[in-house]
Amino acid sequence: KQEVTQIPAALSVPEGENLVLNCSFTDSAIYNLQWFRQDPGKGLTSLLLIQSSQREQTSGRLNASLDKSSGRSTLYIAASQPGDSATYLCAVLSITQGGSEKLVFGKGTKLTVNP
Amino acid sequence: DTAVSQTPKYLVTQMGNDKSIKCEQNLGHDTMYWYKQDSKKFLKIMFSYNNKELIINETVPNRFSPKSPDKAHLNLHINSLELGDSAVYFCASSQRISGGTDTQYFGPGTRLTVL
User: Fold this and answer.
1) d(CA A107, CA B42)
2) Quick check: A33 pLDDT over 90?
3) Which one of A42, A44, A68 makes the best mutation probe of the B interface by having the most chain B beta carbons within 10 Å?
4) Any chain A CB within 8 A of the CB of B7?
């Protein structure tokens, strides 16, 4: 059974700092790994999607890496801003017993960037 | 133009009642999902439909019945509501069962409170 763990559960940093969020998963049989952002009272917004054959993806100040063999991913945020404050969710697209695919989420890292 | 919309945004009801949550996507996607986010913020898949066909049913109680009248809609009906059903329910869609190339787009969520 796929399990996704995110560390730390919460993180508070001063504006401008570079930071790393960690994600680990137990079953390396995945199609992809995705990072989402969730703002309070809102839905999820996809930030980055790394396919299982890829090692990393970049979008602006965000860089996500994937090491499938060790079951790890990191999300690097450069020059953090107060607007980055949100909960960041890691999810892996796993294969179900019936042969379909489903997203399995971690519990998230709540990030606060202080001005 | 909202890509994935849900109604209502908030739903407060008594134990034992029956309620429905509606979801619509205007992205032309083939696949739609329902997720439940509990009080600990843990997000877990409940159902997925592909072209109106049920693909995933994650051991959800029979009181929960999804209905897909067409490809753009996936409604969730809940019978005999229980206190433990209180959560935020998210609808999502993706272009297809893709083997990892397509991300999922999430609605804003419906906060259900059972009294």
Assistant:
1) 5
2) yes
3) A44
4) no
Residues near A63 by beta carbon (within 8 Å), at least 6 away in sequence: A56, A57, A75, A76, A78
- Residues in A touching B108 (Cβ below 8 Å): 42-43
Q: What is the pLDDT of residue B50?
A: 85
| Chain A residues closer than 8 Å to B106 by CB | 36, 43-45
- For the stretch B64-97, pLDDT in tens is 999 999 989 999 999 999 999 999 999 999 986 6
Q: How far is B91 from chain A (nearest CA, A)?
A: 9
How do residues A42-75 score in pLDDT, each as one tens digit? 889 999 999 999 999 999 999 999 999 999 999 9
Tokens of B98: 């893709």
Q: Are strands B110-114 and B10-13 parallel, antiparallel or unpaired?
A: parallel
Q: How far apart are CA B68 and CA B22, in angstroms?
A: 10
Task: Give the largest Cα separation in chain B, rounded.
Answer: 42
The residue with tokens 């272009």 is B95
